[in-house]
What we know:
Elements: E1 15-16, H1 18-22, H2 28-32, H3 34-38, E2 44-47, E3 57-59, H4 71-80, H5 90-93, E4 94-101, E5 107-115, E6 118-129, E7 135-140, H6 145-148, H7 159-169, E8 178-188, E9 191-202, E10 208-215, E11 221-226, E12 229-230, E13 270-277, E14 283-292, E15 298-301, E16 303-304, E17 313-317, E18 341-342, E19 346-347, H8 353-373, E20 385-391, E21 398-401, E22 406-410, H9 423-437, H10 445-462, E23 468-469, H11 476-480, E24 487-488, H12 527-530, H13 535-548, H14 553-563, H15 573-588, H16 593-604, H17 613-616
Parallel strand pairs: 1-2, 13-19, 17-20, 20-22
Antiparallel strand pairs: 2-3, 3-7, 4-5, 5-6, 6-7, 8-9, 9-10, 10-11, 12-21, 13-14, 14-15, 15-18, 16-17, 21-22, 23-24
Helix pairs in contact: 8-9, 9-10, 10-13, 10-14, 13-14, 13-16, 14-15, 15-16
The structure holds zinc ion (ZN).
The site of zinc ion (ZN) has 7 residues, from strand 12, helix 9 and helix 10.
Amino acid sequence: xxxxxxxxxxxxxxxxxxxxxxxxxxxxxxxxxxxxxxxxxxxxxxxxxxxxxxxxxxxxxxxxxxxxxxxxxxxxxxxxxxxxxxxxxxxxxxxxxxxxxxxxxxxxxxxxxxxxxxxxxxxxxxxxxxxxxxxxxxxxxxxxxxxxxxxxxxxxxxxxxxxxxxxxxxxxxxxxxxxxxxxxxxxxxxxxxxxxxxxxxxxxxxxxxxxxxxxxxxxxxxxxxxxxxxxxxxxxxxxxxxxxxxxxxxxxxxxxxxxxxxxxxxxxxxxxxxxxxxxxxxxxxxxxxxxxxxxxxxxxxxxxxxxxxxxxxxxxxxxxxxxxxxxxxxxxxxxxxxxxxxxxxxxxxxxxxxxxxxxxxxxxxxxxxxxxxxxxxxxxxxxxxxxxxxxxxxxxxxxxxxxxxxxxxxxxxxxxxxxxxxxxxxxxxxxxxxxxxxxxxxxxxxxxxxxxxxxxxxxxxxxxxxxxxxxxxxxxxxxxxxxxxxxxxxxxxxxxxxxxxxxxxxxxxxxxxxxxxxxxxxxxxxxxxxxxxxxxxxxxxxxxxxxxxxxxxxxxxxxxxxxxxxxxxxxxxxxxxxxxxxxxxxxxxxxxxxxxxxxxxxxxxxxxxxxxxxxxxxxxxx
Length: 622
Ligand SMILES: [Zn+2]
């Protein structure tokens, strides 16, 4: 027994919040008062959106002191209160994902729901201990119905057969950069499936980062979506040809310096300083690597190895292809070592601008997170920061790739975009990497918009010249149209969304939303349910906190960054709200002006406690 005393079951807690009272299936605690019994002392804050199982968010003094704050005791706590949390056997059905202690001494435990040992897709539950090892918050998804139902969790379909089915379903090319298949339980449309969750990422042909759910008994496709995390979603606006693989035999590029791409061992490079000119003409100092080149000269690389505690910053030249494996088929060298090269420490020709920008901006973003959040690279474990520039031909996007663990930037077609490695875009893409290593936010519907909002918000925190996104990447046609940025956190309605989405706007005018009444209820096959559209509502609240409530960017950054601990893979807007408010309480206290600012900004954007997608759903206008 680790508890020093049994948990008090006094009826002293208060249940607060309209979301809790109004939400679907939210009345368990109201009926029997059981959540009230959890609070030893003071108030409970409860928010519920789950139709099956415990509330989405319960905060208060929930337990006595444990000897240790860890996954075992988190599960023990839930086991002791399994009736309250509507769980059959939490110690058996929850698997620890991680337990991390933060700078305030609090411990955050993430648990994965399982059924007969098989993980349940998307269902994660967090248990949080304060610095005294008392449980203060439980939040996330737990589906109680799964404890009761019978499900055959022995697959009849072999894993490699599921992989073939998945590849066929998305017309995957022969060369696939990343593939993974996991047996999971998939809750989908009020039913439960044993499924293989197949993740395929490829960049030849029509690039994609697909999640395909294959029924592990029948082999049927249950569901699929493309989780490629770009800066935007512009298919309808493109009049350029789709991205296609270059013919290796006809390789030509206007961007090469005349030196053949080399496969180098980064460890053999010497470090040197250099300078370059970015896409918009700005002069920049660069950290380069250099080594022996042709004809006794030196070759300089976009290779920055100046930080001992991390594995370096490398920028690669894709030379307008989407995959350069073919260059190395004969000598078996790794394409990852194809660092962008030049013949001097001066990177000042026009074609070198995207490399200069991506390389320099990666260093700026790395330094920002190290200095302000104590984070050592994207994974907080010193991983190398790798970027690819000159990707494909006239490619109007930039993206982070989970499978490759790197950023990629197109050159744009000059009309919509010019090369995309500007600072706010670089920060945006690197933030997708940070989101991924912090546990991920599903790139779909509300959660996907939360994911995008993190990226845009940190784009404007690190590139602090404005609260607009993409001012330095706009091409000629858009500038002539008066479109000077891609999105705005300051005034989202400044810009229209793609015309194909206008029917889903509240008034038919198709502006980016700044209030929950303007939320776009898009189907999953349109911008993954509006991930690049509804995000502006949330990032507008960040702008309001910083500028209208005058808290400044650092307060927004600290609270948003901390809120990852209170999110989970399938978090909704209402859960994001609770995560932000709890983070503000942790850092500044409930009676602080900072907390009031976040609360006020949520009111301003109409994101009230327990906001529910289904309850607010609105059909398209046409
Ligand atoms: Zn993005």
